[in-house]
Amino acid sequence: DAGVIQSPRHEVTEMGQEVTLRCKPISGHNSLFWYRQTMMRGLELLIYFNNNVPIDDSGMPEDRFSAKMPNASFSTLKIQPSEPRDSAVYFCASRTARSTEAFFGQGTRLTVV
Amino acid sequence: GQQVMQIPQYQHVQEGEDFTTYCNSSTTLSNIQWYKQRPGGHPVFLIQLVKSGEVKKQKRLTFQFGEAKKNSSLHITATQTTDVGTYFCAAAGGSQGNLIFGKGTKLSVKP
Fold first, then answer.
1. B53-70, pLDDT tens digit by residue?
2. HEC string of chain B?
3. Which of A29, A36, A72, B111 could form a disulfide with A94 if both were Cys (CB 3.0 to 4.6 A apart)?
4. Do B48 and A99 make contact, defined as CB atoms within 8 angstroms?
5. Cβ pair A56:B98 closer than 8 A
């Protein structure tokens, strides 16, 4: 298995633009997480899906952020409009079930200028 | 929501010295996981602790889960330069099944 696949690996965009981050979880995994990592705030859980259904989105910063999981093999995190403070590394992770290890993708480094 | 506090934030050691990072929660945890993130990399799972008072070892790494299941620690004996990275604890299996990470302890090892 190729592991969790995220794209793009790097994204530089101008303030106000829409940004879409993509994630393909490991086949057979039914839980998916989106995290944001910054020096100041560490690894923040943004949203957690189980069987494609959002279970906990309390970490989504504001309405500018939205996440979807239309099927078991694909998820997106969208920021519209983007702001410089959104600059961070965004990780997607998946796992088979509760209380099992999570596998992380390589991350997307987002820079908003 | 559930939170886990991790200390210290940074630790600088001389190669060969020991290292310990601590993780604390105000609520009882179902289980706790530990991850390591190398510089420029992504978090990688190390181990999961489930039972009260559990102790697990991986070579030079010793993981403990407190009796009350509210705290945990990771101890590295005789650090090596390959141990460099950030070590995270994560509270797993909460009521919603989410996975909440501590802020991590960044370890640097001077040769």
1. 999 999 999 999 999 999
2. CCCEEEECCEEEEECCCCEEEEEEECCCCCEEEEEEECCCCCCEEEEEECCCCCEEEECCEEEEECCCCCEEEEEECCCCHHHCEEEEEEEECCCCCCEEECCCEEEEEEC
3. A29
4. yes
5. yes
